[in-house]
Write a structure and sequence with these properties.
Radius of gyration of chain A: 32 Å
Structural class of chain B: mainly alpha
Number of helices of chain B: 20
Largest sheet of chain A: 2 strands, antiparallel
Strand order of the largest sheet of chain A: 1-2
Strand content of chain A: under 5%
Oligomer: heterodimer
Helix content of chain A: over 70%
Radius of gyration of chain B: 21 Å
Number of strands of chain A: 2
Shape of chain A: globular
Distance between the termini of chain A: 39 Å
Chain lengths: ~650, ~500
């Protein structure tokens, strides 16, 4: 029964996509209706505790179930998707709109499969289908070559992380014989460690943590409604959700919690710094997403073995509520300015409604009470305080950074100015943004004690002194952000491009891999193929000797060879006859003898190849290549060297890990 | 019924070879014959009981003194492969010819090739297996040489000689294997039951080596794969589809049926070595494919990658590591699914590549761009096949690969972990291919590029519907394979 929840939006999306572009209103009604039904299904499923299972293969069963945590996310996802879809139907250009909306529904379905999954195989299926959707959606405006390239970048990067999930899945099966989440509890030793770190890599990749943050920037080439969905409800959020969901089984692994905290904290601070610097409206928000997801990572793993996955999920929900309207607002402002450069904007007078509603969402991002997001951020800070004072302070600094970039974003986009917008939003766009912005305010109920008491989770105790410090930091951040925004003039520093990480990845991985592949292709043609060619050439020599016998006269030839030579011209005629018209059926065995002889002779007729034997030729070429490679290493192309070094180190580490397994 | 499935295409081929029929009549006759052959196979499937040994067996004595007889029958490996081949032949024959010359002979050779190919999968006699194995080379040689383009004859010859060299090794190994038993028999069932080389050392190893090298050429595995790209590049699309979809499977089928099942102990001894060769093929095939600028060469090298997965699964299944029976079942199931999935997916990809050639006589990726606008059906078909090939869940390739990986990890964790890297490279190379053909700015020269026709689209639909069906609901196929029973009778 629970399968209906992911399947319905997916099938509806497929139907909308294949049906093609129609009148805007009809498309909007159908898509919105599908999202409403999905939301209703999610509420029903959560209320009635639906479950589902499906025999997929021998010993492999897909299982779906809802826990309180996953029910909260399962309701958030279609709710946010509904608003985003309404916005998209009104905002995005006509061409390809049905494809866009259909794919966004499929995306929602895949996310719901990920959320409801109760075994690793269902999880992997939803997880990777999301990757496909992100590829297609980022490249939505496919006529621009760079968009599709960005989609590919996103897909390949996140799939690199998916390998971690594959490892987790394989380790779980080999350790426990099944793939349901509970099986994780029966693992121990290396298998459990592999599963735990594999899940971490997969989650980190989707959530744009650490080195994986780069794909979120490239993903900004997609339409802004796609960004809103991707960052708020699907894909990126899935990373934090996965850690929260699997936390009970993984938290005990030595070093795991520490790794999660380190990854999350570094990303939270670095992402905050990047967002403070960046001048591109959507990229600023993308960096902020990495940072906020980093805070959720910290919340999941903080206080070793205990953790507050519930707090992480609450922050996921509040984050969805403010991040989606911010992206939608960036879409409106970007459309108005014709660019996403924040410096070109400033629409308080021209777009007062949008400006006001965005302010609510920006306050939530800045974690200003009484917004719900402020409460969840304070809980994360409190939880971090339990771990250590420094961790708590670091989380507060990350919070100050988010206040700074939130203020900077809002001020630059909606400062009072005289800029005349190129385009104005339609009312559904404002309504969708507004609904989400009001949800941010509504989530402020979380500050009330009875609401907190009703939450089905353990909450970290806060100290009022800590909250005061945190609020002071937030206020400082707001002021700093406004100051920065008012002084904004020069283009952003180079470090704003994720601290140079994309360039490093290009130089360290992408380019060397391309070169390696081309070298491999050359070796394949030139060396591996030399052996058979050499054999053919050798045979040609034999054939040439044969011909010499033929010329020397039949008298000089022994009986058997004479018969063979006589067949040669005869067979040649037959061969030609076959190639022209094969209405004569020729005995295959005889033909083959002839064909070989002729073939060996033909193959060697290549004028350029005069070496006597292919083997020495091949060997010489290999040596030549190694020499060229060795020279290349010494000629200052250091990134080759680093790539090889990294590969070697990785291989050595893998060897050490698996030898003990 | 199985005899009928083999003889029907052969008889139709003979008819086409001698009767002066028109091109369109030849085409209809060929489609009908291939479809009837498929129907015969489906009838066998309808009466098939999973995991119950060889079924639908027919036997007729031929050379009793040598123990050779016309024996046919199917089990959980050969039936899915034969069904897939039967379907792919219908698709390839129904696919429009690229160069419409000598249509009658073209269809005759296709049907001849179909008879030979089905014979390889359906026969239970080792000698007849060998005969059909070689006859398939003849059929493919003519299809490439006569209806190919570029240096077609040279490519055909290279293909023929290279694979013939492999099959000579197989012949030697077959003779050596059969000479071990007394009285002489070529009956596969008896050979599997007898395990002729059990307990021997050097001789058994050499026989296995002969089989493995011979089948590795056909599969093809690194480093004996270099005949594959030229053969594909110059072949017509439909012949490429059969070459990749059906002929390559003969290599992996032979590995399972002969090397693994008849030489259980010896295979287990060398399973790890075979697994390592498979791993190298997986990585090498994908990396080299990544660098190809030619559409067909790119797809051709991914075959090396995918067949590497299949061989990895077979190696794991035959490894006989105790305590991992369930993992080995899973790996063998995965390998068979990989064979079926690769046949459908790569068959579809090569047919589309043929459509590109038919329209533009060009495989260079740089020649294309921005075709999503005027060829959306083509993009949908190729996109679906590409994502299936790179292993997206919900499509057939994933079902195969995830089972192979799970099984392999339980037995050789590091092999499986390294093989995972192939997934990344194939993702990058297929997305790059789609991107360069279908997206970005369209060169003005391509403005009149025509989308898939109704005929082409229906052929694609037949193949791709199965790819989706297997991906979403694989249980029916996995049940048909029933790998547990296969291991019990053949692998120990």
């Amino acid at each position: 029964m629970l399968f209906a929840l992911p399947l319905f939006p997916a099938l509806a999306g497929l139907a909308i996509w294949t049906q093609g572009d129609g009148p805007r209103l009809r498309l909007a009604l159908i898509t919105g209706g599908a999202a409403v039904v999905t939301l209703a299904l999610a509420v029903l499923a959560a209320a009635q505790g639906w479950q589902g299972s499906f025999v997929w293969g021998t010993g492999l069963e897909l299982r779906l179930a809802l826990t309180p945590l996953s029910a909260a996310v399962a309701i958030t996802v279609p709710a946010v998707a509904l608003a985003v879809l309404v916005f998209a139907a009104a905002h995005e250009e006509r061409r390809g709109r049905a494809r866009l909306l259909g794919l966004m529904l499929i995306f929602t379905g895949a996310m719901l499969l990920t959320v409801t999954a109760a075994d690793l195989l269902s999880l992997l299926i939803g997880w990777e289908v999301m990757g496909f959707c992100s590829w297609a959606l980022i490249g939505h405006h496919w006529r621009d070559h760079t968009n599709m390239a960005s989609g590919r970048y996103a897909f390949v990067t996140t799939r690199l992380g998916d390998l971690g999930l594959f490892i987790a899945l394989m380790a779980t099966w080999s350790g426990a014989g099944t793939l349901d989440y509970a099986a994780l509890g029966r693992l121990n030793g290396t298998a459990l460690a592999l599963a735990a770190f594999g899940v971490l890599v997969a989650a980190g990749a989707k959530a744009g943590q650490g080195p994986f943050a780069v794909w979120l920037f490239r993903a900004m080439d997609g339409p802004s409604s796609v960004s809103a969905l991707l960052h708020a409800a699907t894909m990126v959020a899935a990373g934090a959700y996965l850690l929260a969901r699997l936390h009970p089984w993984l938290s005990g692994v030595p070093g795991w919690s520490g790794a999660v905290i380190a990854l999350g904290l570094v990303t939270a601070l670095a992402g905050g710094a990047v967002a403070v610097m960046h001048g591109h409206a959507k990229k600023l928000l993308a960096a902020s997403t990495s940072a906020q997801l980093g805070l959720m990572f910290v919340a999941v793993a903080v206080a070793v073995g205990v953790g507050y996955p519930g707090v992480a999920v609450v922050h996921l929900v509040t984050h969805a509520a403010f991040k989606a309207p911010l992206f939608l607002s960036a879409g409106i402002a970007g459309e108005a300015a014709g660019t996403y450069r924040l410096r070109e904007m400033g629409y308080m007078h021209a777009l007062p409604w949008t400006a006001g509603l965005t302010a609510l969402a920006a306050l939530a991002l800045a974690a200003v009470p009484p917004m719900g997001a402020a409460w969840s951020k304070e809980r994360i800070a409190a939880a971090a305080m339990h771990e250590s004072l420094w961790l708590g302070l670091a989380v507060m600094v990350a919070g100050a950074l988010s206040a700074a970039y939130a203020a900077r974003f809002w001020w630059l986009a909606y400062a009072p100015g005289n800029t005349a917008p190129e385009a104005r939003p339609r009312w559904p766009e404002i309504a969708a943004t507004g609904a989400l912005a009001l949800a941010c305010v509504g989530l402020g109920l979380l500050w009330l004690d009875p609401v907190q008491a009703a939450l089905p989770m353990r909450l970290p105790e806060g100290v009022s002194l800590e909250t005061a410090v945190s609020l002071v930091l937030v206020a400082t951040g707001l002021l700093a952000g406004l100051t920065l925004a008012r002084r904004e003039k020069a283009p952003e520093p180079q470090a704003a491009d994720w601290l140079g990480l994309p360039a490093l990845i290009d130089a360290g991985i992408v380019l060397p891999f391309g070169q390696m592949a081309r070298l491999a292709a050359y070796i394949d043609d030139a060396v591996l193929d030399a052996l058979p060619r050499g054999a053919a050439r050798l045979a040609k020599r034999v054939a040439r000797g044969w011909r010499w016998f033929d010329k020397a006269g039949p008298g000089a030839v022994p009986q058997g060879a004479e018969g063979a030579t006589r067949m040669l011209p005869h067979g040649r005629r037959g061969f030609r006859g076959l190639m022209q018209a094969d209405h004569r059926l020729i005995d295959a065995a005889v033909w083959r003898t002839v064909a070989i002889t002729r073939a060996l002779a033909r193959l060697s007729d290549n004028p350029g190849e005069t070496l006597a034997d292919g083997l020495p030729e091949g060997a010489a070429r290999i040596i030549g290549h190694s020499g060229a490679d060795a020279r290349r290493l010494q000629t200052g192309l250091s990134h080759h060297y680093y790539a090889i070094f990294v590969t070697g180190a990785a291989a050595a580490i893998l060897f050490l890990i698996f030898r003990r397994f | 019924m199985l005899t009928l499935a083999i003889l029907l295409p052969l008889a139709a081929a003979a008819l086409l070879a001698f009767a002066p029929l028109s091109a369109s009549l030849s085409r209809s006759l060929a489609i009908a014959a291939a479809a009837l052959s498929l129907v015969a196979l489906v009838v066998v499937w309808a009466g098939f009981t999973p995991a119950a040994g060889f079924q639908a067996v027919q036997e007729a004595p031929w050379i009793p003194a040598l123990g050779v007889a016309w024996r046919v029958g199917v089990d959980g490996i050969s039936l899915p492969l034969a069904l897939m081949s039967g379907l792919l032949f219908v698709a390839a024959i129904a696919w429009p010819m690229e160069r419409e010359v000598n249509a009658r002979q073209y269809y005759a050779w296709f049907l001849f090739l179909e008879g030979a190919s089905l014979g390889v999968f359906l026969t239970l006699d080792l000698l007849i297996f060998y005969v059909f194995f070689d006859l398939s080379l003849v059929g493919m040689y003519f299809l490439i040489g006569r209806w190919g383009h570029g240096e077609a004859q040279r490519a055909a010859l290279k293909f023929f000689l290279y694979t013939l060299a492999g099959s000579l090794l197989i012949l030697l190994a077959i003779i050596a294997l059969v000479l071990m038993v007394d009285p002489l028999t070529f009956d596969m069932r008896e050979l599997i039951a007898m395990q002729p080389v059990a307990g021997m050392d050097l001789r058994a190893g050499l026989i296995l080596l002969g089989f493995v090298i011979g089948f590795a050429v056909k599969t093809p595995l690194f480093p004996v794969h270099t005949w594959l790209p030229p053969a594909h590049v110059d072949a017509p699309g439909a012949a490429s589809a059969i070459l990749a979809g059906v002929l390559l499977k003969m290599g992996t089928y032979g590995l399972v049926r002969i090397a693994m099942q008849m030489m259980r102990e010896t295979f287990a001894t060398w399973a790890l070595a075979i697994g390592i060769v498979a791993l190298i093929s997986i990585l090498w095939g994908s990396i080299v494919a990544f660098a190809q600028e030619n559409l067909k060469r790119r797809i051709a090298y991914t075959s090396v990658n995918h067949m590497g997965y299949a061989v990895l699964g077979i190696a794991v299944a035959g490894s006989a590591v105790t305590g991992h029976e369930a993992a080995r079942d899973l790996a063998l199931t995965g390998a068979v699914v990989e064979m079926v999935a690769h046949g459908l997916i790569t068959g579809a990809l090569f047919l589309i590549a043929g459509a590109f050639w038919a329209r533009r006589q060009e495989y260079d990726l740089d020649h294309y761009g921005g075709l999503a606008g005027n060829a959306p059906r083509m993009m949908a078909a190729m996109g679906l096949a590409s994502f299936a090939s790179l292993g997206l869940p919900g499509l057939a390739g994933f079902v195969a690969e995830v089972q192979i990986f799970i099984g392999a990890f339980a037995v050789w964790p590091w092999l499986a972990a390294l093989a995972l890297l192939g997934l990344i490279v194939t993702a990058a190379l297929f997305l790059g291919m789609l991107q360069r053909i279908f997206f970005g700015q369209r060169p003005p020269a391509l403005n009149d590029f025509a989308d898939l026709t109704a005929v082409e689209m229906s052929v694609m639909a037949a193949l791709l519907v199965l790819v989706v069906l297997i991906g979403v609901w694989p249980a029916w196929l996995l049940e048909m394979i029933g790998a547990g029973a296969l291991l019990a009778t053949g692998g120990g």
